[in-house]
Structures are given as C-alpha cells and as structure tokens.
Amino acid sequence: MPTIQFRATGMCASVEVPEGTSLLEASRRSGLAVEAPCNGAGTCGKCRVRVAAPGSAGAAGPRDVLACQAEVAGDLVVEIPGSSLTGLRILTEGVQVRVPVAPRIRKLFRPEHDRTDVFAGADRVGSEPGDTSGESFGLVVDIGTTTLVASLVDLGNGVERLSRSSLNPQTRHGQDVLSRIEMGSTAEGLERLQGELIAELNRLVRSLCSGSGVAPGRIHEAVFSGNTAMLHLAAGADPRSLGRFPYTPVLAGHQYLGARDLGLEIAPGSQVYLPPFLSAYVGADIVSGILATELHRQPGVVLFVDIGTNGEMVLSVDGRLTATSTAAGPAFEGMNIVCGMRASAGAVEVFAVDGQDIRVETIGAAEPVGLCGSGLLDLVGELAWHGSLDRNGRFAGAGRHPHPGLGGRLALREGRPVFQVAGPVFLTQKDVRQVQLAKGAVRAGIDLLLRSQGLGPAQVDRVLIAGSFGYHLRTSALVNLGLVPEAFGDRVAFVGNTSQSGGRAFLVNARSRADMAELATRVRVLELANDPAFEKTFVAAMAFPERKPPA
C-alpha cells in the first residue's frame, strides 16, 4: 500500500493507506488530522494541503490541493499549513465552587480477606485484591460540540491529578448540533458517532493514566457534562426527537449508565453519571455552570451566558432562574469564515486599534495564517467602532474611513472588497455577515430573556461569560459588536469552562446531584422558537451599534 508522510510545523506522521483513499481520510488515520468543516463536501476550502511529491493528479512537482478531493495513487509527502491543522488551544479550567468532598464512591478494606470492596452509594460494585482504599479516582468529561476535556480526579481529596483535551472527532461530520442530530437519527449514523466519541475518550483515559501512574481499573466513576444532544450521542440514545417539535429528549439527565455498556474502559462495575438537563437545547453543561458559579444563590440580577456554537444563557433574579438558548452557529469558532481557523498556532487572536497604532497578535506569536473566533470578533468590533463598517455591516467606501490605518487596509480581491488583516489573512463582506448572524442570535436571546422578566440591561448587576471561546474575548469586543448591551461594559466576568468545573463538583460531592436535579425542576425555560418577537428582535440585533468614534 502507498505510504503517505504528513508534515506540519514541528510534527511529522506516516501512514499506509489503500489506493483511492482521500488525503483527508489518510490524515485522520495518521493522527495529524486536517481541518474539514464541510466533512469532505469540497465546499469550505479549509483542508488545503501541499502535495510535495507526485500525486494522484499526475503533477510532477508540489501543488496545492483540497485533501478531501485528492485521492492517493502512490507514495506522497504532504505538507499541512498551520491553518489546516486541527491542533488547537482548548480551555480546560473554569471557576470552582467549594463543595465538601463526599463522593458517591467509597471503599472498605476487609483485612480478613485481604480485599477492598468498592461501593457506589449503598451498592457494592466491585472488589479488589489488597488494600486499595487510598486509590479511588473519578473521571470528568466535558463533551463539547467542538472539543473534549477529560480530567482525572482523586476522590479522596477532590484534587484534579491531570487533564487532557482534544478535538471532538464528531466535528468531521458537521460543526453544529443539528447536523449531528440528523446523522444520529439513523442506526448506522448513531453507532458511528457514538463509537468515534468513545474511542477518543478511551484514548484520553489512557493518556491520563499514563501521565499520572493511575491504572484505568482505579477509575470507579465518570461524569459526562455537555449539551443535551452531545450526551445523547455519547450514550448511544436516539437524538431524532431533539430535532422535531416538541423537542423532547429521550434521556432525562440525573441518571446513571454502565460505563462498560458504553464502551468506556474504566473499572468494571463503574457508572457514568449524566447531570440534569433543562431542555433539548439547554443541557447538562449549563446545569454544571449553574453549580460552578452558584448562580441560584447569587443576590440581585445575574446573567450567565455560555458562548459557543450555541448561545445558552440563564438569568438569575435573586436566585429565581430562567433559561434559554439560541443557535449561534460555528462562526464564533472561526468556521464558515474564508480565513477562519480554530484557536491554534498562527491564528490571529487579538486585533486592537490603539490611537493611530494597530496591534495584531497571534497564538504562539507565530506568523499569521488565519482568524480564530476571538480575533474575528476583535477585528469586526474594531471596524464597527471606528466606522469602517456601517450599522448594516457594509464596508465603508474609499476615503470614508475615519481611521487612516484602517482605511489603508481595504482592498479588492476578485473584484470584491476585503479588509487585509495581516500577511495572507483577510476579512470578506460575507465573513462580516456570518458574524452578524451569530451575534444577532445571541443578542436576541439576551434581550428576550431580560424582557421576559420585565428587565432592561441597566438592571443587570453582573454578567458571567462561560465557555472556552468566551474566555479569550475582550469585553470591548463584545460591546463594540453589540453582542452584549453597552450597559454590561463594566459588569462582565469571564468564568471559563464551567461545564468541566461544575462536572467536577458533581463528581466529588454526591449530594449536589439530587440538589441540582430538584433545582432543575424549578427553572423556567423560555422557548424562543415560540416567541413571536424573536424574528424582529433577531433582525434588529444583527445591526452594529450606532457609535461615534473617539476624537
């Protein structure tokens, strides 16, 4: 079989594949996976690579091809540019709530038999030779639509031993929840999605155990935190009802599943706990966020917003909770953007206008190769603030840019206006539209959630922004875009990956599970699809704020 050698900055991998295999599939088998948001449809252009040896197209020298469209016909050397590689920066930490260390798992050493019995609550679930009473561990997994974060936690003291993260392998089948629901609605599709996810989780478990010296057989319980659709797919539960009115989940949350039944390679007899859901589109990750931030115990008016491919939010008014969600789409993660990429080396993550100076920063201080989500919002926010974009998102015409440094970067590409960011990176008019659609959805959710409680932005005391994407944003970008009201400017706090940190609290304190399950029954869920004001609010929220740039 032909041998394909993949090369990226500081990395190299080889794999043998049959002739006719696409370069995209070969890259996935090699471990140096190429980015492919359209999953091989040939429409996104993100999987561009350089074939540095004769390939299937018969080229005599190096040429650029789309990995999803090029097939292997012989030995190849393939160079993967930074913007096409799926290696990315993932946020693993979030604000921590202090809970007593009182896990569901406990161990009892029986010296007369020289064995240690393992209990989950009152049930005996295993027995181990010798005294292993001091070796009890749990696993917390944040199953995001895009990323996975797995942490190994010592159940004796509640301390995290090690954390590992990776791309969710299901992204190859679609970037958003709805595409996964559609694929998972067939038996074959569900089996594939669940199998790929569990295989990656087992790889992360092996990495955690190797790095910590803890045997997989000492991991006696796992908590899966994630949105409702992701947890259905992880459990192998049919997700089709999540895509059809009245959007009723098959799973209820606050339930246990056999780890070995799911294929998770941890201790025999262990179980996986799924935290409560609030609805089909407000999932266990948000309940974990409520627990991590103690939102239900906060005085005053506090808004919790988790920004990602979905915008999920909870409003607390002296502890009374109302929740909702909107479909933001993948633009916030650099997808559906011409020069967009995930948050990895070379991605522009900061674009700031300081007086007459323009500052561009990339991840790892590498040469710019694309725009990740935080850089994209920074950029569009600055252009809107300084008048280079009008309220409707159109580029200002020649000579109409109030800031000369910005005006000098407007150019034509294939007859259409683009904004040159840095190096080969540019922003198109279509990209701006994608940002408007995403930010309009989130802002509409915020406005309608506040309106449902008879509140305005000025009455909100604190705003908690959660999620890996939100953690890398600047408050000024959120305000400049109009993604949040201007009144929020001095009230925003970034709380990180609360799905993961809340999941850890569920793991180390068993009582919190019943408490949060009871709380979930009292949360009011606002279904925006049924709100006649949503469409009008959404359209209005797409516009950029009316602003006068500083003198």
Instruction: List how many beta strands DSSP finds.
Output: 26
Structural class by secondary-structure content: alpha/beta
Going by CATH, the architecture of the domain at 105-283 would be 2-Layer Sandwich
User: Shape, please?
Assistant: globular
Give the amount of beta strand, in percent.
25-35%
Helix content bin: 25-40%
Distance between the termini: 66 Å
Rg, Å, rounded: 24 Å
What composes the largest sheet?
6 strands, mixed
Stretches with pLDDT under 50, minimum 5 residues: 55-59
Overall average residue pLDDT: 88
CATH topology annotation of the domain at 105-283: Nucleotidyltransferase, domain 5
CATH C-level label of the domain at 105-283: Alpha Beta
* Neighbour order of strands in the largest sheet: 11-10-9-12-14-13
Classified in CATH, the superfamily of the domain at 105-283 is: Domain of unknown function (DUF4445)
**Number of helical runs?**
14
Structure description:
Among the domains are: 3-84, Beta-grasp domain (Ubiquitin-like (UB roll), Roll); 105-283, Domain of unknown function (DUF4445) (Nucleotidyltransferase, domain 5, 2-Layer Sandwich), CATH 3.30.420. It is α/β, with parallel strands linked by helices and 551 residues long. It has helices spanning 23-30, 177-184, 187-212, 228-235, 259-262, 284-293, 373-385, 404-407, 429-452, 468-471, 475-481, 498-508, 511-520, 534-542; strands at residues 3-8, 11-16, 48-51, 63-66, 76-79, 105-110, 115-120, 123-129, 137-143, 147-154, 160-167, 219-226, 255-258, 271-274, 301-307, 310-317, 320-327, 347-354, 357-362, 370-371, 410-413, 416-422, 425-428, 462-466, 492-496, 524-525. Helix content is 26%, strand content 27%. The termini are far apart. The strands form 6 sheets. A 6-stranded mixed sheet has the order 11-10-9-12-14-13, with helices on both faces. Strand 15 (301-307) and strand 16 form a beta hairpin.
